[in-house]
Amino acid sequence: MAATELVSLTNGVLTARINPLGAELWSLTDDVGREYMTDADPAFWTGRAPLLFPIVGALSGGRYRLSEAVYELPKHGFARHSRFELIERGGDKARFRLVDSPETRAAYPFAFALEVEFALGGQCLTTTVTVTNRGAEPMPFSFGFHPAFAWPLPGGGAKAAHRIAFEREEPAPVRRIDPTSGTLRTDSDPTPVQGQVLAPDASLFELDALILDRLESRSLVFSGENGAALRLDFPDCPNLGIWQKPGAPFLAIEPWQGFNDPEGFDGDFFEKPGVVVLPAGESRQFRLGVNVTPAGNR
Fold first, then answer.
1. Which 8-state DSSP code applies to residue 236?
2. Residue 173 DSSP one-character state
């Protein structure tokens, strides 16, 4: 999609640009034009901030089971490759919508609506995702955010000086992904988080993402030198993935509800760990606030 087709929002403090393909945040800049998102260099990864629905991560063999029926879904689901309808637009707010279609029902046989609202307020961009079950039966799903931020942050100094400070201590072991199957390994590794602080380093991601499936925090601060910082608030997501392609100029900090199939899991999709079951006619919201503090202003 050409840049001229992106939906731009601004409040004079921040400017956000969103691609209706995937309702994906492509850019977040401050009032002097400093970019806080990945540059999407194809040498590493062309994504920016995909929305993960109706699964997070990979399924075992790329398939899942509902009773006796078997369906196929690609890693992270289909929302990130789907074109959303722009249903509301203002100067500092926009809302997008995706509903089920014959194509989605072939892979995920449920009637759903996925609405995504982006709203700027002061130094914060808030993304609110509402999942609605439009059908007559319970609907299982997972959802995740996948934003990749500039690393180093603009004006934030050396990559090695950056830190993630969690709201609470995170003592639980971290999980890893099996590189062959894409499933979540049954064993775990000691957490690299020291108390509340993680020092991100490319070596941590040589085995893919760090997955915190027993997350205590619902907020964190990613910061560099000179005061450059992003505070992420994600009150509705109990899991977190942290990932990069080693050496890339980004760090993906991903609040999730759900994760990859656990190694050896062959149960019904309703039984998959991390799946939410939404009753008929009900909705569930997931929010992500990104509060920007430019270098020199904290």
1. T
2. P
pLDDT of residue 298 exceeding 70, the answer is no
The two structure tokens encoding residue 220? 């964190």
Q: What is the pLDDT of residues 10-47, one digit of tens each?
A: 999 999 999 999 999 999 999 999 999 999 999 999 99
Residue type, 95: R
Name the percent of the chain lying above pLDDT 90.
96
Identify the helix (H) or strand (E) that includes residue 192: none
Write phi, then psi, for 290 (nearest 5 degrees).
-120, 105
**Statement: 3-293 belongs to CATH 1.10.260.40:** no
Length of the chain: 298
Q: Tell me the torsion sign for CA atoms 38, 42, 48, 54.
A: negative
Within the chain, residue ranges assigned H as helices are 102-107
Threshold 0.85, pTM exceeds: yes
Rounded distance, CA 212 to CA 195, Å? 14
Distances (CA, A) of 135 to 112, 114, 188, 282: 7, 13, 38, 9
Q: How far is CA 180 from the centre of its chain?
A: 23
The strand pairing partners of 172, in sequence order, are none
239-269, pLDDT tens digit by residue? 999 999 999 999 999 999 999 999 999 999 9
How far apart are alpha carbons 69 and 48 in whole angstroms?
34
Of 282, 158, 290, 277, nearest in space to 220 by CA? 290
CA–CA distance, 6 with 104 (Å, rounded to integer): 24
Kindly tell me the burial class for residue 218, based on how many C-beta atoms sit within 10 Å of its own C-beta (0-12, 13-18, 19 or more): middle
Is the predicted pLDDT of residue 1 greater than 70, yes or no? Answer: no
Q: Which residues contact 47 (CB under 8 A, 6 or more apart)?
A: 24, 38, 40, 80, 146, 148
Give the residues across from 205 on adjacent strands: none
